[in-house]
Design brief:
The chain is built from twelve helices and 13 strands. It is of the alpha/beta class and 387 residues long. The protein has a seven-stranded mixed β-sheet with strand order 3-2-1-4-5-12-13, with helices on both faces. A four-stranded parallel β-sheet has the order 7-8-6-11, sandwiched between helices. Strands 9-10 form a two-stranded antiparallel ribbon. Helix 1 packs parallel to helix 11, helix 4 crosses helix 5 and helix 8 crosses helix 9.
Length: 387
């Protein structure tokens, strides 16, 4: 009987999470000692229920569809786990002769990955556990960026560019677009790329890294209205005031998952109430992480590489680590993958650094644009205006 490998997804999907799955499966198929390539159906809960999907017989032409499929093709979850569940997992892994485990996810999943690895170690089990980074929020520590971010960044930059063209053509209101990202404003910041090279960009960008002042926001809008009649604002869903409280009360909270109130609607309503000017809100939400037409090619290739390298690493005896990216150069863009100890990334949230945020706290710097540009996977389409 050969050894088996297990792949699990955790947390919110991205436009390229399945590309990492593809890279891992493709690599695992190369090893003769691997009998079964299992996936846990719907994450850790699926493993605990012993709901395993067999993937080794899936033909290559079907597997390739993973590269253009959003969401999670094997299902994911946000399960809250206690030590007894980690103990149970190790029993299930032994029962199914699973010697290698690849966990694909963000901060919470890397925490789970580290705890499962330590549980295996404490029991003297030779089970290799490895993390594959995934988060559209780009908030995993150590790595230059995470698979999932580039596509979410491209989606928002393109969408904001289109809204800016719309508002320029009919400049009669303030439009507030809400971007994803709890405590890290990477996606919100990426909206600045709308103005890169050719096109209109947002007038104001508010990141959660800076305390949000409603009076200052209204002042920013007021000043802009003296010069132009159509304004585009991009705001993070996680904006907080000087006391660290969300500017709109969260609708619902369970564990680490917060369902934020409607920040964009709140900010649009403030303009209407305080300035008597027409305003509207837009909230892409899940669309921002599920768009295949706006998937970044760089993001897809790096996601696949992360899955491949994680598989390769466990087969070479590595464990208790995560695949990360180091930027060698920006012009031309060159990146190299490396392994980092899981302890260094477990639940450390990486936020946007000061040098990427402008002094006024309502925009980003050129340094951010330079860093972000190659991750979008090519220029956004040019536009034209005679207005």
């Amino acid at each position: 009987m050969g050894d088996n490998i297990l792949i699990m997804h955790g947390g919110g999907p991205t436009a390229v999470i399945n590309a990492s799955l593809y890279g891992a499966i493709k690599q695992a198929k190369k090893y003769k000692n691997i009998e079964h390539i299992y996936a846990a159906k719907n994450g850790t809960g699926g493993l605990l229920r012993e709901e395993l999907i067999e993937l080794e017989q899936v033909p290559d032409e079907k597997l390739k569809l993973l590269l253009q499929t959003p969401g999670s093709a094997i299902g994911t979850s946000r399960d809250q786990l206690e030590q007894e569940e980690y103990d149970r997992m190790t029993e299930i892994l032994q029962k199914h002769n699973i010697k290698y485990v690849l966990m694909n996810g963000g901060n919470g999943t890397m925490d789970t990955c580290g705890k499962l690895y330590k549980t295996c170690q404490s029991k003297g089990l030779d089970i290799k556990v490895m993390g594959i980074p995934k988060t559209m929020d780009n908030d995993i520590a150590i790595t230059d960026h995470s698979p999932g971010f580039g596509s979410a960044a491209r989606y928002l930059a393109q969408s904001v560019k289109e809204v800016c063209a719309d508002v320029k053509g009919l400049p009669i209101h303030v439009v507030v677009i809400e971007a994803s990202g709890r405590n890290a404003g990477w996606i919100t910041a990426a909206s600045a790329m709308a103005a890169d090279r050719n096109g209109e960009g947002p007038d104001l960008i508010y990141l959660p890294e800076r305390p949000f002042d409603e009076d200052k926001y209204i002042e920013d809008i007021k000043k802009l209205l003296e010069k132009k009649s159509g304004i585009v604002v991009v705001a993070s869903e996680g904006l907080k005031n000087a006391k660290g409280e969300p500017i709109v009360e969260p609708i619902f909270k369970v564990g680490r998952a917060t369902y934020f109130g409607d920040v964009s609607a709140h900010l649009a309503n403030l303009v209407i109430k305080k300035l008597g000017y027409k305003a509207r809100s837009e909230k892409p939400g899940l669309l921002g992480r599920a768009s295949i037409p706006l998937q970044s090619a760089v993001d897809r290739e790096e996601a696949e590489l992360a899955g491949k390298m994680a598989c390769e690493a466990v087969m070479n005896g590595e464990a208790g680590k995560m695949v990360a990216f180091r930027r060698v150069s920006t012009k031309p863009y060159q990146m190299e993958p490396f392994l980092v100890d899981i302890d260094e990334v477990m639940m450390y949230e990486r936020t946007v650094p000061d040098e990427f945020i402008n002094e006024a706290g309502n925009g980003v710097t050129e340094a951010f644009k330079e860093w972000c540009r190659p991750l979008l996977g090519g220029d956004l389409p040019d536009m034209i205006s005679f207005n």
